[in-house]
Backbone:
């Protein structure tokens, strides 16, 4: 007897009990009957186009050939996947696919991992009966800076089109022409500029779509695969590093249905070039008379230890650690708190919000909660630009029927699918929130937030926004039906870092520090340094001159501080001010764990050793502590760190690299698990943020491809950094009497051309953050805007 | 013989049967007036069901039954299939050009019965003149209050517009047509869901052929049972046949089914031109397997056609006399299907073109004896078993249609195919 | 922010607006708009497709995907008179291929080519629903039935010599046609002014001549 969730089907005479509602091709695969396929893909809507998966199913009119990828299993279904008719049909389809397929397998990137090649061996007829001229197309054409298309190899399976359209919402690659001439193409001179284009390469079953980076770089059989996570943003998509001869040749998404569903953003996929960049710092450096000189590790560490000797602990601070593993962050925290003795630690750069709120907000949403939400409120950074894979998840949720409200001073990637968009003048968020909560305005939005569970994704919409607004939003979100809250910080492993205590008011494992005993946060440290109240500053993979809201203050702080230690892989605007630079290992070079924005802990692994003399942060602080005579305080390696934090950090109790590996199916675990506890459960309260009343308020928000150090080093995507303009509303443009393309001066500091944009709230100006052209602008909430006169 | 239903008015009014004045003068829109005043939608649907009329677009599905499948959720749509593009078929063109008001009256009645307030008439792009005539008739109908808001003060409203295709036979397939009407590529959709549940804009939709709907005024006026009483039981009513090729009197003929092929070709269509001998004919549009003189006395019904392994399809009868080069004729048809393949599924996209290529090679004198088996085997990989109605490895029947002429010439005219193959290429020589 | 079709004729812009309002979903207007765009640009150009895309809110690639599916959208310039010769089965049986050859010869082109004076393009088409009047030919989609190879030559010559403003089916039928599929009824006042179907809302029907 089958219950409601399973049905019984018969495949090749054998009865099986299978999950109801699934496709026959999947059900068969799960019971060990693999049916060949090209167009079928678990994460895409079925199209039934390739016809490779034909099987016979008994029906009222006898056995019928049907595509198993479009058939839903039903009770009593009798299936034959091996009959003569099926075999002939499958052989026929394969032959049809091959008649026009070029014979260039030996030079094809897909050679060795191509189902067409494999299935030809397994099912196909031997010698070709096709003696007509083959269809030919121009050999690979670049359809973007990162993707190449070879139409001769294409089997027209529609996977790339569905990924671009249905999944990413960027229908820029489509079928053209018809019949025998059907071909995949982009529009002439309009590149496939999607943040998700690389997924098409990964799903392409043949070698038709290939990545520029990977082309001819390796053959599948000499690839080594290292499971890890993509560490660019706090989604931390599950991924694989593929290496050949010690170099990364590509990054692939792994299937993690709780997280990224097998997708990656192009930033995650294509910006691995930084690891092998020629300007990487590969040995310790010390500043001598204004310039850097290579020194040995002992020399460098001794210099630092000397400097730290006898110094008052409160005159030492560290900014950064968000790019490191949990184990590294844990070691750094221990070093600062227990060896140096200070709470002046911050993994954020003044660009986020209240660390306790971010690390410990309750009730906290998981990514699965987002997928199955009844309603979603997004009030924070533009997900498409900052957390692209979460953007995909929200799209999926909306497809599943969730209503979506987006609140933002400017157009976001999600607006087009939102049930309701709340556009507000930057700096007036608190007012909007009040009206929304009271029901005195934005009724559409309120109405769209009534079906629980309602997941509120909250964060800071831009660097110029008051960080306290995020807490007000969270407090509002908490009042919604069956509320779940997801904090949106965006940088890499910042949630792991906070969980490891890299915040002035947090200890490892989500333990709060009383306000009176808390240390300085990043802006506090920079302020103190600028005023001579802080002597030694550690920059741990952080670049406050570029990334904090007040670049001038950061620059001054680094100048004024007595001694700056940068632990970094590159010389940046900030690390250039250092007295000592220690070469740091990057992602792909260290083992450990990381924690994402829902608290999911996954393992990361080294695919190859650190470049040159670079070392992991853990090794660096361990050795430094040893020189300072406190060697026994710090963990000696990743495993020790992992087990000691599993003991010491309450939220991580029972969670180690090993336990994740053995217990999580490769999908990671969300902390705290059953064994853990969360001492600090942060309940957000309305922060009553004052409304900014100045004439112009600033919306200073990042885009996916900024001038960040990683992007700059990824040749393939460096070209995708957008044009920089100032956007103002049509109304303000007419008041200022400026036209599209005219120049304006922002804050007497920055002259930029204007784009008049109806999606900008009146009274706000939108300036992209962290682009070469906007470097140095202070992220103040209010700005002045003056037209440049006389240049008509 | 029964009086014609669809063509009576145009036969009697050779110049102006398309105008509203003539239509009104000959009793037009009277049925509509009566129906809106005195019949419920259900009653109209009942009459259509009782008529047993089978759709005239090719698939032959009973119209009343299909209407019964329409999901009850607003908005729903009625779409008239005027894409008529199958070689040999030109009946809908005549109905559109010569009696557009008959169609419109049928549309209003059908829409009323179905609870539809928006209907579209999809006309193939190469039919600008029929489209103009229908558009003019629509304009006139709006003017007279037969279309628009609150039609004849019945409270029932209906908007109708014409949508012109862009040149693609496959848009005659109803789901491809819906895609096309939505502004997409005319690619057939996977079924289920069927249009009656999820059609235009994913709403419940009925798609009917021009001729099918043009019958509705008569059925409503005279009652479904009177319609059902015409002709053989499972091929009720009159039907438009398009005769073309080597006959003396090509044209459209509205006939009652049940007569023999001999009657149709020799009587109705005036026999073969120049008194030549009949060689073969296509009984139901380019997709149908051919018949040969031994079938002349078979009755012309949907079921008898099926028994003979073919179909009446779109009602196009293409007659070929003894002078016909059947290999060239088959090539013309295969080329048509290869040209019109939408290309989304592998066997049709690759297979139809391959068949075309092989035939062209044979016609160039470069055939090999094994090409005959190859033609049949490639056909078999598109339509396993080469039976009719076809089994398919494809999404829609277009691909399998291309195998009909291959099957026909190899079955009946194998020698003529072989005659194209150079002696040097015949095995054993 | 100006309209994407600000460069179109006033008439073209008006038609575009009507078409956008005609359907429950704007996207349905893509095919009619492509006809209007080809009238404005002479054929379906990249610019035209981008404009249509912007009007209906899809990407240019999506429009191109549709525009390349259908054979009546011409992506290269065609002559002022597009002569389409049917060679599908019924026409094939009665000499359609010879008509095609004759028309090509008269225009001095290969199938699909455009005469040197840019006046005539001759193309092969599949069945145009005039099989009872085979062989059938269309000029700018206006039909002539019962054409012979000799009449086809006359037709091409006549088009090049008289260069009619409006192509009228009844006139062509009288001059170059023969057997018809059925009675045509009253002569049509409307005809084609370009190689785009002469259907009012799509932009090319004109009152008589
Ligand atoms: C390849 C193909 C072409 C078709 N062409 C037409 C056509 O031109 N006109 C038509 O009415 N039906 C055509 N049909 C049938 C339609 O799919 C559909 O069955 C019909 O429009 C329903 O109307 P009816 O029930 O009134 O016949 C075609 C079907 C196929 C598979
Ligand atoms: S390019 Fe690749 S993914 Fe896209 S249709 Fe072709 S084979 Fe499929
Ligand atoms: S059979 Fe041919 S026309 Fe039909 S869906 Fe497949 S490719 Fe398209
Ligand atoms: S895998 Fe089923 S049709 Fe392609
Ligand atoms: S076959 Fe030529 S018009 Fe139909």
Residues:
């Amino acid at each position: 007897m089958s219950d409601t969730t399973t049905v019984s089907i018969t495949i090749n005479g054998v009865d099986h009990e299978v999950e109801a509602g699934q496709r026959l091709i999947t059900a068969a695969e799960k019971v060990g009957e693999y049916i060949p396929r090209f167009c079928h893909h678990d994460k895409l809507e079925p199209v039934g186009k390739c016809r490779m998966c034909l099987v016979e199913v008994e029906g009222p009119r006898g056995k019928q050939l049907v595509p198993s990828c479009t058939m839903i299993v039903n009770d009593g279904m009798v299936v034959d996947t091996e009959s003569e008719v099926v075999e002939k049909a499958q052989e026929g389809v394969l032959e049809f696919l091959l008649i026009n397929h070029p014979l260039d397998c030996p030079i094809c990137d897909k050679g060795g991992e191509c189902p067409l090649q494999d299935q030809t061996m397994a099912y196909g007829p031997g010698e070709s009966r096709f003696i007509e001229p083959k269809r030919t197309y121009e050999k690979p054409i670049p359809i973007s800076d990162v993707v190449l298309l070879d139409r001769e190899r294409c089997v027209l399976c529609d996977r790339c089109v569905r990924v671009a359209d249905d999944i990413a919402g960027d229908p820029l690659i489509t079928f053209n022409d018809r019949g025998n001439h059907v071909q995949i193409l982009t529009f002439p001179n309009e590149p496939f500029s999607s943040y998700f284009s690389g997924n098409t390469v990964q799903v392409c079953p043949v070698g038709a779509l290939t990545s520029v980076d990977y082309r001819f770089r390796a053959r599948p059989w000499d690839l080594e695969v290292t499971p890890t996570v993509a560490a660019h943003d706090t989604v931390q998509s599950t991924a694989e590093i593929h290496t050949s001869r010690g170099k990364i040749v590509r990054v692939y998404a792994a299937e993690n249905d709780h997280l990224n569903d097998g997708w990656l953003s192009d930033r995650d996929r294509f910006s691995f070039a930084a690891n092998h960049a020629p300007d990487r710092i590969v040995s310790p450096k010390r500043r001598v008379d204004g310039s850097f000189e290579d020194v040995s590790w002992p020399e460098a560490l001794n210099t630092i230890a000397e400097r730290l000797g006898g110094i008052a602990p409160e005159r030492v601070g560290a900014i950064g650690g968000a790019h490191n593993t949990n184990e590294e962050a844990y070691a750094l925290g221990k070093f600062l708190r227990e060896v140096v003795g200070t709470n002046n630690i911050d993994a954020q750069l003044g660009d986020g919000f209240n660390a306790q709120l971010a690390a410990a907000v309750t009730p906290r949403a998981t990514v699965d909660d987002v997928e199955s939400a009844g309603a979603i409120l997004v009030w924070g950074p533009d997900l498409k630009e900052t957390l692209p894979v979460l953007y995909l998840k929200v799209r999926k949720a909306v497809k599943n029927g969730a209503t979506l409200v987006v609140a933002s001073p400017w157009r976001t990637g999600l607006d087009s699918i939102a049930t309701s968009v709340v556009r507000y003048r930057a700096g007036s968020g608190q007012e909007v929130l009040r009206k929304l909560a009271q029901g005195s305005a934005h009724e559409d939005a309120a109405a769209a937030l009534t079906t629980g569970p309602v997941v509120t994704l909250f964060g800071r919409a831009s660097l110029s926004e008051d960080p306290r607004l995020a807490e007000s939003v969270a407090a509002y979100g908490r009042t919604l039906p069956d509320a779940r809250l997801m904090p949106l910080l965006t940088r890499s492993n910042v949630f792991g870092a906070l969980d490891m205590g890299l915040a002035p008011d947090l200890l490892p494992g989500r333990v709060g520090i009383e306000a009176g005993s808390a240390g300085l946060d990043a802006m506090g440290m920079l302020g103190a340094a600028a005023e001579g109240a802080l002597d030694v500053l550690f920059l741990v993979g952080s670049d406050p001159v570029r990334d904090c809201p007040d670049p001038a203050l950061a620059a001054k702080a680094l100048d004024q501080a007595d001694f700056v230690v940068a632990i970094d892989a590159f010389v940046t605007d900030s690390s250039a001010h250092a007295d000592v630079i220690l070469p740091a290992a990057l992602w792909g070079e260290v083992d450990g764990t990381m924690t994402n924005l829902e608290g999911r802990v996954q393992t990361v692994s080294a695919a190859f050793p650190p470049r040159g003399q670079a070392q992991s942060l853990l090794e660096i602080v361990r050795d430094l502590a040893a020189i300072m005579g406190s060697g026994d305080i710090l963990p000696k390696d990743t495993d020790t760190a992992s087990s000691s934090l599993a003991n010491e950090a309450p939220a991580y109790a029972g969670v180690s690299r090993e336990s994740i590996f053995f217990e999580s199916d490769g999908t990671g675990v969300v902390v705290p698990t059953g064994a853990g506890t969360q001492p600090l459960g942060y309940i957000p309260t309305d922060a009553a943020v004052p409304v900014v009343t100045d004439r112009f308020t600033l919306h200073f928000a990042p885009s996916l491809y900024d001038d960040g150090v990683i992007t700059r080093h990824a040749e393939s995507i460096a070209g995708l950094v957008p044009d920089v303009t100032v956007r103002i509303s049509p109304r303000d443009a007419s008041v200022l009497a400026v036209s599209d393309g005219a120049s304006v001066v922002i804050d007497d500091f920055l002259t930029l051309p204007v784009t008049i944009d109806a999606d900008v709230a009146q009274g706000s100006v939108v300036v992209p953050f962290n682009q070469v052209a906007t470097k140095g602008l202070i992220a103040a909430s209010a700005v002045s805007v003056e037209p440049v006169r006389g240049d008509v | 013989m029964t009086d014609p239903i669809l063509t009576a008015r145009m036969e009697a009014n050779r110049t102006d049967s398309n105008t509203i004045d003539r239509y009104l003068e000959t009793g037009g829109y009277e049925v509509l007036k009566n129906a809106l005043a005195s019949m419920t939608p259900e009653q109209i649907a009942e009459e259509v069901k009782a008529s047993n009329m089978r759709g005239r677009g090719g698939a032959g599905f009973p119209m009343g039954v299909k209407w019964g499948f329409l999901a009850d959720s607003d908005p729903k749509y009625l779409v008239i299939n005027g894409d008529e593009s199958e070689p040999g078929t030109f009946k809908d063109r005549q109905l559109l050009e010569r009696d557009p008001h008959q169609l419109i009256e049928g549309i209003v009645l059908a829409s009323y019965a179905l609870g539809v307030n928006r209907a579209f008439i999809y006309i193939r792009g190469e039919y600008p003149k029929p489209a103009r005539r229908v558009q003019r008739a629509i304009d006139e109908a709006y003017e007279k209050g037969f279309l628009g808001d609150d039609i004849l003060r019945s409270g029932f409203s209906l908007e109708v517009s014409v949508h012109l295709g862009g040149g693609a036979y496959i848009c005659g397939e109803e789901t491809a047509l819906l895609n096309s009407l939505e502004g997409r590529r005319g690619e057939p959709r996977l079924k289920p869901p069927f249009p009656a549940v999820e059609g235009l804009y994913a709403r419940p939709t009925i798609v009917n052929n021009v001729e099918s709907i043009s019958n509705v005024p008569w059925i409503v006026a005279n009652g479904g049972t009177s319609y059902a009483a015409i002709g053989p039981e499972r091929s009720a009513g009159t039907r438009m046949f398009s005769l073309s090729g080597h006959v003396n009197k090509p044209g459209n003929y509205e006939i009652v089914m049940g007569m023999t092929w001999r009657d149709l070709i020799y009587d109705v269509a005036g026999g073969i031109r120049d008194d030549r001998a009949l060689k073969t004919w296509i009984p139901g549009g380019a997709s149908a397997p051919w018949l040969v003189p031994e079938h002349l006395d078979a009755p012309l019904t949907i079921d008898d056609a099926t028994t003979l392994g073919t179909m009446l399809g779109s009602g196009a009868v293409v007659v070929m006399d003894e002078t016909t080069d059947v290999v060239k004729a088959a090539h013309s048809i295969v080329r048509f299907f290869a040209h019109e393949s939408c290309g989304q599924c592998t066997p049709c996209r690759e297979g139809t073109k391959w068949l075309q290529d092989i035939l062209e090679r044979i016609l160039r004198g470069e055939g090999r004896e094994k090409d005959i088996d190859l033609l049949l085997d490639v056909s078999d990989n598109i339509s396993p078993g080469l039976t009719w109605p076809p089994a398919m490895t494809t999404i829609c029947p277009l691909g399998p249609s291309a195998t009909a002429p291959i099957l026909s010439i190899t079955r009946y005219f194998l020698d003529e195919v072989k005659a194209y193959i150079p002696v040097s290429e015949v095995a054993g020589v | 922010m100006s309209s994407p079709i600000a460069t179109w004729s006033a008439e073209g812009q008006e038609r575009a607006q009507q078409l956008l309002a005609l359907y429950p979903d704007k996207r349905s207007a893509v095919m009619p708009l492509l006809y209007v765009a080809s009238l404005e640009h002479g054929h379906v150009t990249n610019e035209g497709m981008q404009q249509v895309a912007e009007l209906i809110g899809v990407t240019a690639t999506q429009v191109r995907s549709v525009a390349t599916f259908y054979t009546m959208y011409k992506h290269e310039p065609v002559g002022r008179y597009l002569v389409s010769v049917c060679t599908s089965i019924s026409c094939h049986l009665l000499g359609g291929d010879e008509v095609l050859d004759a028309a090509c010869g008269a225009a001095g082109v290969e199938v699909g080519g455009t005469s040197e004076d840019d006046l005539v393009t001759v193309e092969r088409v599949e069945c145009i629903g005039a099989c009872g009047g085979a062989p059938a030919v269309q000029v700018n989609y206006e039909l002539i039935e019962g054409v012979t190879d000799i009449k086809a030559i006359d037709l091409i010559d006549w088009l090049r010599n008289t260069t009619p403003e409006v192509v009228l089916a009844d006139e062509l039928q009288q001059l170059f046609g023969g057997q018809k599929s059925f009675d045509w009824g009253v002569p049509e006042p409307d005809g084609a002014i370009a190689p785009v179907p002469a259907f009012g809302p799509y932009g090319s029907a004109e009152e008589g001549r």
